[in-house]
Amino acid sequence: MLTTNRMIASLLLAVTLLTVSIATSAAEVTGKIQSIIHSSKVIQYLNPKTKEVKVLKYTDETTLLEADSFKDLTVNTKFKAVVNDDNVATQIKRVLVKLPPEQVIDTDTLADLMDEGKPIFIGDARPLSVYNAGHLPTAKATPSNQLKENLDWLPSDKEMLLVFYCGGVTCPLSPAALKIAVAAGYTNVKAYVEGFPAWKADVYPSHVNPEWMEKNLDIHHVILDVRENPTSSVKGAVHVPASQLVTMHEQWNAEKFAVGKRMVMGLRDKKAPVIIVADMDNSDEAIEAFEILTFWKYKNAVILKGGMQEWTLAKRPTQDEDFSTELVYEKKMAPGAVEESVFVTAAKQGDATIIDVRNPDEVASGHIKGSINIPLSELDEQLAKVPKEGLVILHCEAGARAALGYTLLSKKGYTNVKYLNDSFKGVVADNGIGLL
């Protein structure tokens, strides 16, 4: 009996030690997703406490909590994860906003109230820089970290419906704004928890204010006048009638042309800030153009609030009827991005190491002579293939995976690495780069 008890005790001790060993080999991380590549199962995230940018991996076996699928993990999602010694997440949990149902309003309800013209104050609780780049129609900038000291931003009627929104179901800014408004005596306050991502996903229009736009009339912003026969327009605008976009859209639909390859005026950058100009912001032309460009995967298409009518009345910069029909646009260079000309020279002359971080099946469809294929998911396991001297340029299909690879290598101490933040096939076609 004593021997049996000792055996049981030994087994319990072994299990305890094993549990402790497993626990010590795992670590919990908290972050906000900056970029995620589902095909490679790699996440780049910002640590909210240290402000460090880090990368982790996940697998099909990773346990997912508070989400139906990995597709629910999007940019700006806040999460907690348990990672092992190989920096692979064994569990990922979305940190969802929790509010009583009576304090929450959904997308369709909010859209219906706006369409009906009901008195409603919509506050954008995100930072001002994010609000400026695109917001819900009629929304006012009410950054939650400044609202308490600026209650005059809110209407004087304490019984008016106030709706605050921010960056989605894991964003705490709209609940924070709601709490401040309630404490200030407002009695009808709700949070649009689904937020701006859901609004965009349902293809409801987004606006930019003319005051902001007037300060950004440069080659880094695309201004499309979609009216049929304008005699003047916003300074720097190019003319693309909505009717022309409709014709192109219908033709490409009939041809079953891939949505991701559809471009307006050859604009490859689907993240480019595109501002649509019509007579009014609710003109049929504005709405048609917005819906088509959104369908073509332009992620930052917005409509000019007040349209050309208000722009002209405010005597903001304009140009005459001979405005351009050719697009002039330059993408702002992101940290670590390489100039297109440098990539082209490297591809043609071989004066830099080009690493292709696409998956093998993508590489098989065409790759640059002399390039090295290291799929992004394997990059940290194949560092020996990455030179520490001489220029190294990473590329993928559109730039997102290459950017993650750049971050990963930078964390490993590489200082000679750049990445192509552009469409690989677009750059190849435009510059006559031969592929194998």
Automatic annotation (TrEMBL):
UniProt GO MF annotations: thiosulfate-cyanide sulfurtransferase activity
SUPFAM superfamilies per UniProt: Rhodanese/Cell cycle control phosphatase (SSF52821)
Signal peptide positions (record): 1-26
Rhodanese domain location: 116-208, 221-320, 348-432
Gene3D superfamilies for the chain: Rhodanese-like domain
Key word Signal present: yes
UniProtKB keywords: Signal
InterPro entries listed in its UniProt record: Rhodanese-like_dom, Rhodanese-like_dom_sf
Pfam families tied to this protein: Rhodanese
Record protein name field: Rhodanese-like domain-containing protein
The organism of origin for this protein: Vibrio superstes NBRC 103154
